[in-house]
Each structure stands twice: as structure tokens, then as C-alpha cells.
């Protein structure tokens, strides 16, 4: 058995060398995919992004490189963008499916994320979804506005520097008061013109969503 040890050692070194080379190739492909995916996202968010062609199983290399959280966050924000919160869900049933997908992904970031700023951003987007639904659903408007304000408040708690969440929180609190007053007075349209419903990131920081 001893005489085979050198051969086994050489074989092990060769295998390790091959794995290192393959790993280096996959790392380069992941970097390229992340960069190109971020660029493509700006103009074509509906395309499949951040998915490189790897030699080793992509899930393995993604985990080894610590990219799982980065990709999960990107996919959650992408799902939110495709949900089109500026449009009422009843205008297109497919938006309901997309909005549900965004909600699930963003909730996972909020509940299991480790980066406070990302958790704050995700909570803010969840609030935007609830706010958008409130504008289109008079029956459940008060409940949805309350849900939105709680998410915005949560976003501020995660990141006190999130000016968009602060603005959105003030907006929904004011809208909540207006809704209560209008409903108690028998009104039918408490929404103040849907201000701030043009989508997350549409304006400068501190101007909402």
C-alpha cells in the first residue's frame, strides 16, 4: 500500500488543481454575470438576470462566494419593479401574481436579512405595495393604509437614515387620519389623489417610495 501513496498524492494534487482552475473560471463568470445583470436590469428587468453559465453547480459556487443574499435582494427588488405599483391590480390579473411574488421575496428579506439597510429598503417597498393596494381598494383602504404605515415605520427603525421611508410614513399617517375623518363623515373617496404612487425610487431621496 505504501508504494501507491505517492501516486495517490499526485492524483489528489491533480484533482485539487483542476478544481481550483474550474473554481477560478466560475468566479470570473459570476462577476461578469452580476455586473452585466445589474446593467441589463436598468433597461430590461423582465429578463432572466444574474444567472451565469458555470462549470460547477451554480448553487454551490454562489453559496461559496457569498452571493446568495445579494441575488435574493436583487430578485426581490426586480419583482417589485415588475409588480408596477403605479397601476391598480384589478387592471391586470397578472399584476396580482407579480405583486404576490414581490411581497413574498421582500418579506423574506425583512424577516431573514442581515443587512439593516436592505431590510429597511425591503420594508419600505412592502409599504409601497400596501399603499398602492389601498388606493385601489376602498373597502379595505383603512386596513391597508395602516399596514403600509407599519411597514414604513419598520423601515425607519431598521435604518433611521432612510428618508424615503420617513416621507412615506408621514404621508400614510396623514392619509390614515384623512381616511378616518372621511369615513366617519360618510365620504367615499378619502385618497388625496394618489400622491407618491409612482413607484419606488422614482424620485429623489426624501420624496417617497
Task: Detail the topology: elements first, then pairings.
Layout: H1 5-43, H2 58-64, H3 68-83, H4 93-112, H5 116-136, H6 141-158, H7 163-184
Helix pairs in contact: 3-4, 3-5, 4-5, 5-6, 5-7, 6-7
Total strands: the figure is 0
The SSE order reads HHHHHHH
Shape assignment:
elongated
Biggest sheet record: none
Query: Structural class from helices and strands?
Result: mainly alpha
Q: If helices are DSSP runs of H or I spanning 4 or more residues, what is the number of helices?
A: 7
Rounded Rg: 23 Å
- Sheet-strand content, in percent, reads under 5%
Classify the oligomer. single chain
Cα(first) to Cα(last) distance is 69 Å
Number of domains: 2
Helix content: 55-70%
Average pLDDT across residues? 80
Low-confidence stretches: 185-206
What does this 3D model show about the protein?
Helices cover 68% and strands 0% of the residues. It is elongated. The protein has helices at residues 5-43, 58-64, 68-83, 93-112, 116-136, 141-158, 163-184. The protein is mainly α and 209 residues long. It is built from seven helices and no strands. It folds into two domains: 1-66; 68-209, no CATH class. The model is unreliable at 185-206 (pLDDT under 50).
